[in-house]
Amino acid sequence: xxxxxxxxxxxxxxxxxxxxxxxxxxxxxxxxxxxxxxxxxxxxxxxxxxxxxxxxxxxxxxxxxxxxxxxxxxxxxxxxxxxxxxxxxxxxxxxxxxxxxxxxxxxxxxxxxxxxxxxxxxxxxxxxxxxxxxxxxxxxxxxxxxxxxxxxxxxxxxxxxxxxxxxxxxxxxxxxxxxxxxxxxxxxxxxxxxxxxxxxxxxxxxxxxxxxxxxxxxxxxxxxxxxxxxxxxxxxxxxxxxxxxxxxxxxxxxxxxxxxxxxxxxxxxxxxxxxxxxxxxxxxxxxxxxxxxxxxxxxxxxxxxxxxxxxxxxxxxxxxxxxxxxxxxxxxxxxxxxxxxxxxxxxxxxxxxxxxxxxxxxxxxxxxxxxxxxxxxxxxxxx
Length: 383
Description:
Keywords: Aminotransferase, Pyridoxal phosphate, Transferase. With about 375 residues, this protein is an alpha/beta fold. The protein has 14 helices and 15 strands. The two termini are about 35 Å apart.
């Protein structure tokens, strides 16, 4: 049967029907009063989601564009920075920082392990001359399913007093609590195809007062990603360039849905689905890849033994039309990843756990009695 694909990957995530229908409307002028009303409304909604009174700017581009914008708008060539690297995306920010001539100190952990906040704290405390200008890290490391302790690491940055925090929250914003103002985070980057529940194409950069102070002395090259242009435009409820207009229609609809559900309910739902997925996985005899207690509420990484992870993914896709994510780089064939981010409900969790048990049984790799994993997931969902 065609057109029954169920996305259970960390992005793009499933899109609600009413959000998709909003995108089918005819585009309007991006300099029109009607569009300005949408920009004004979504800007306030974005501040609600980020739990901030700071500026939240919208860029037509991917989450990588948002992160690069956060870096190049606050730093200067030769600046000393700390980059956390415990996965594909932490690795990417090291590459981006080096590409712009920054002096990078890497805090590294093995893939599947969280970054150690004490390492950041030690390096920052040793910097008595206050030469370190920023700490750059990924909150939810999509490639491995690890959630890093952003609150604790950011606290160490605040104690330094000079450095700012630039956080990739692409798969954590809209999935778990990230109170920007309460924690004092300086830059938060995110993307539309994750917790926002809309297709890829928009990214968001939230900038604190300290981030704008750093911007005043930033000398890295920028044009399309020059956030001063976006700030000037947003103050007029506009955009400096031609934006993805129909994605703004979707953004308004999805953020309205999220406001109706409420932040705490959103966070509770993601935590509940994370637990149901993880407990079901363990009950059927599979091993979680991520260190215990550091799993992301957006995605669960599974490390099967005695079977190639791609074989499992292929079986589930062919038999059930459920798409799971594979491992990246050296983890290809060694892990698969189940997304439970955004527009996901209990039925989706039950479906993916059931499909996984069926597929393992079919290829002769199911260790536990069939149905044990599903029973465990259901018990979590019913409590």
